[in-house]
Specification:
CATH architecture of the largest domain: 2-Layer Sandwich
CATH class of the largest domain: Alpha Beta
Radius of gyration: 15 Å
Order of helices and strands: HEEEHEEEH
Mean pLDDT: 77
Helix content: 25-40%
Number of domains: 2
Oligomer: single chain
Structural class: alpha+beta
Number of strands: 6
Strand order of the largest sheet: 2-1-3
Largest sheet: 3 strands, antiparallel
Length: 125
């Protein structure tokens, strides 16, 4: 799995507002290793955010958003005829707390757009 610098930065910002548990099979950022995958079934970490924080996947973001306030969402990508991204990914979402109000976030990758939406929901809470 590869993460961009922006995605890692967004994961740290999310971790400052909501700390998800790091468990078997998850990725997390570590100052020592930079990127780390959990292979031990009994792994637990309680260090501070400066030393490590969990990295989110697209599916984890979508599951979290659906469990929270998201009423509806979609992901739009501008692709060329070869399937390469030509612009930003747009993540459209609607909050239950603000019915019929559309919100959206942009990112260079799908994960970045999802993380920006997740961060916006956490900031509203």
């Amino acid at each position: 799995m590869k993460f961009t610098k922006d995605e890692i930065s967004l994961c740290k910002q999310v971790a400052e507002k909501h700390r998800k548990a790091i468990k078997y099979g998850d990725w997390f950022y570590s100052k020592k290793a930079k990127l780390y995958w959990v292979w031990e079934k009994t792994f637990t970490r309680t260090d501070n955010l400066d030393n490590h924080f969990p990295l989110w996947t697209i599916s984890e973001c979508l599951e979290f958003l659906e469990r929270r306030k998201i009423l509806d969402w979609s992901i739009d990508k501008d692709l060329d005829k070869n399937g390469k991204l030509t612009g930003n990914v747009c993540f459209w979402w609607e909050l239950k707390s603000k019915k019929f109000e559309d919100n959206y976030t942009l990112g260079k990758t799908t994960l970045e757009a999802c993380l920006r939406a997740l961060l916006a929901v956490l900031e509203e809470e």
